[in-house]
Amino acid sequence: MAEAYYMQLTRQLREQLRYGGATWVDEVGRLPAERVLAERFNTTRVTLRQALAQLEGEGKIHRSNRRGWFVSPKRLEYDPTRDAGFNDYVTAQGRTPRTEVLGVTTATCPAAASALGLDVNHPLYHIRRRRYVDERAVLVESLWVVPEQAPGLLQERFDHSLWGLLRERWQLELSHRSIRMVSEALQQDDASELGVATGTAGLNISRTIFDTRHRPIEYDEEHWLHDALSIRVELSNTT
Amino acid sequence: MAEAYYMQLTRQLREQLRYGGATWVDEVGRLPAERVLAERFNTTRVTLRQALAQLEGEGKIHRSNRRGWFVSPKRLEYDPTRDAGFNDYVTAQGRTPRTEVLGVTTATCPAAASALGLDVNHPLYHIRRRRYVDERAVLVESLWVVPEQAPGLLQERFDHSLWGLLRERWQLELSHRSIRMVSEALQQDDASELGVATGTAGLNISRTIFDTRHRPIEYDEEHWLHDALSIRVELSNTT
DNA sequence: CAGTGGTCTAGACCACCCA
DNA sequence: GGGTGGTCTAGACCACTGT
């Protein structure tokens, strides 16, 4: 086969997005309707959508559920090993952060409890947040904190760094951390909170945190849009 | 809408894969042909393929180009901050590693050179390898080594740890490392070397390595199948 | 209500893999 | 050469978003 037409389409669209200014992209980065693009490139919606899906996989464009396709902004650089707050590192990159607290409860979570080495029925503080970069929702996260380590935590506000709070108010020293990163397809709840279709490619980042005395402190799970971040870790010691 | 049919399909297939032993999966983990599955679930290939694509995004199944769909094996746990060799950590997890050297040359690479802080035309040793876990090709990688730091390197064999080689033969101490991880769509060359379709979801892991005197040593870029690995980093010092 | 993406049909032909 | 996935057509209806 010479080359699948949808791959040629992909290349054309990609190049027009990068150079050319792509006159057909409007001022907020929105692409024309699929039907319009399909007609312009003399093909059907199915084939056009294959090309769009390719670019989506590359992180060049993304879709907002039933609203249309948009050019994806530059990826955020993120170092999950540092405890700089989200607000800090987003601002440091010249972007605008925002955090929404979706829920604050006490509940049990077998996955979190077992990661922390506790009984699966051990109650935990649960905080759920949604975070934005330049008003685009890029991640939802669930934080599970061991109540004994930070009594009264749920009275606090959670629109800033949780780790900063734990350090200042409860003098907790976050020492050992175990971090796990795995690609995923966003499940229904996470996807709808991010305004994307179920199954959209995502990245799951989970941390388990212990203090200097190896007591379990916190477990958290972040679900990112895959095209929103680039992970960067700097290490200096030899292992 | 109640629920899209392909999502119901996805759920059924997922559950049958997890429990039930899925009698329709053969002994090597291969699924029946798309046409057969489509007929069995009373739908068309297009809709069935949507369901398969969902499971592919979840890392449950994968396809080998034009050969069929297969159940994905367990993800490999991988810590990119350690310099344990591929052979070592794959074996430690009870799996069987294999490395194929695809090419050994001297060439220029602007991306590698600039990451190392060298002139873009600075020649570098280039080693390209393909690596397998249990005979499944899971990644291709390009290694770019600064020739001045390891003269004669290209005479060596590269089916084992490069870092081990640099340490033993040239007494190089790998100190500072900058690691970057980003989701990607596998490009034509990488995809075909892995036997998958262009655009298949992948994970790109790049490292830039300096020695204790901050001299650039090596830059490498790994392209993994997204469902083949789970990244895990353990940290003990506070930052 | 108009426009958008999301889903789905019922076919077709082609390129590649393997026996 | 038979079977597989890969690509593509030309439609259709639906659900949701925004005005």
Automatic annotation (TrEMBL), chains A, B:
CDD domains per the UniProt record, alphabetical: WHTH_GntR (cd07377)
Classification of source organism: Bacteria, Pseudomonadati, Pseudomonadota, Gammaproteobacteria, Oceanospirillales
Gene Ontology MF annotations: DNA binding; DNA-binding transcription factor activity
Keyword Ubl conjugation annotated: no
Sequence ranges assigned to domain HTH gntR-type in this UniProt record: 3-74
Keywords: DNA-binding, Transcription, Transcription regulation
Name of this protein: UTRA domain-containing protein
Gene Ontology biological process: negative regulation of DNA-templated transcription
Pfam families tied to this protein: GntR, UTRA
